[in-house]
Amino acid sequence: MVYFDNAATTSLDPEVKAVLIDVLDTFGNPSSTHAEGRKARALVETARKEIASLVGCTPGEIIFTSGGTEADNWALKGAVRDLGVRRILTSPVEHHAVLHVAEELAAQGLCDTRLAPVDSRGDVNLHWLEQELQAAQAEGVSVLVSLMHGNNEIGNLLPIKEVGALCKKYGAWFHSDMVQTLAHFPVDFSQLSLDFSACSAHKFHGPKGIGFAYVKANSGLHPFIHGGSQERGHRSGTENVLGIVGMAKAFKLSHERMEADHQHMRALKAHTIERLTTALPGVAFNGASGDLDNSLYTVVNISLPEGDPNRGMLTFALDIKGFCVSGGSACSSGSSKGSHVLEAIGSGDGLRLSFSRYNTTDEVDALVDALKTV
After folding, report:
1. Catalytic residue among 57, 199, 324, 331
2. 122, 278, 289, 295, 327 from 312: Cα distances, Å
3. Which of 234, 256, 278 is the last residue of a domain?
């Protein structure tokens, strides 16, 4: 098996696995005041401090969650419930953890959700965004902007500082799903006009079922899950000590290896683009994924030339040949509808290849050869 679906999830780093095995012996509840509880609490708080130090915020602004989806839900629903937001500005290429929440809030009559236009590459129209922010300010309407930092399907990168500056200029709240960029790119929350963000450990060789929400200090956001006083009163439920420690280890390792990983995966991506272009004349790169300098270095998304009889069956055919990839049209993915992201940019189908530090050029060559055969 050759694995090229790292934007969906990554394999567990061996060093993270070793830490998880060690932590299994720490069984105390972090809320307990006895020795076993204090031992678990120390692990949780040490992990929080380590993560905060790597992203330029205070430990209190890192709230552990079950993953990115929970963090996104909390930010959007909390902004409407607690902060008086009555308009959400987002885009049609967001992750469903944002898009479906914004749509549901609008369906319930709790806010007005508006989708920013995107061009054929998938980039958000920032002129439209500024016009909307300006109009909302004139109307006295409180706004939340929710735009992802890195698109998980087509690799587009948001000019996050520019968007943050616009939000600050017009007094809007700003949330960004950073699941595909945290631990892959240097991020300093102290330098961003950002109120809320989301992270998920399994995107950078950590365990599944754990992530964190960045919630700017004194934001006014109330708990999303009630029941106890865990996470300094922000998120009830006994902390996932195992997951938290594993995430912190994976986060630290990713930052230590960030430059080397970046160079390695960028070279893999460049090699992939070159091989695909040569082997499959007429292949198209969806979104910004074919742009080495202005997209996620982990993602390439392609469409075969029009008329190719196997366009819709690529993931299935490659799976049979031992390659794990994602994307494709509805008939091959088993879903009732194709990718909303590809639909938004006018692309009928796509095949996503996403890399990790463990992939090699030999694997890329084998994949391209298999794809050419198919």
Report:
1. 331
2. 21, 21, 20, 25, 9
3. 256
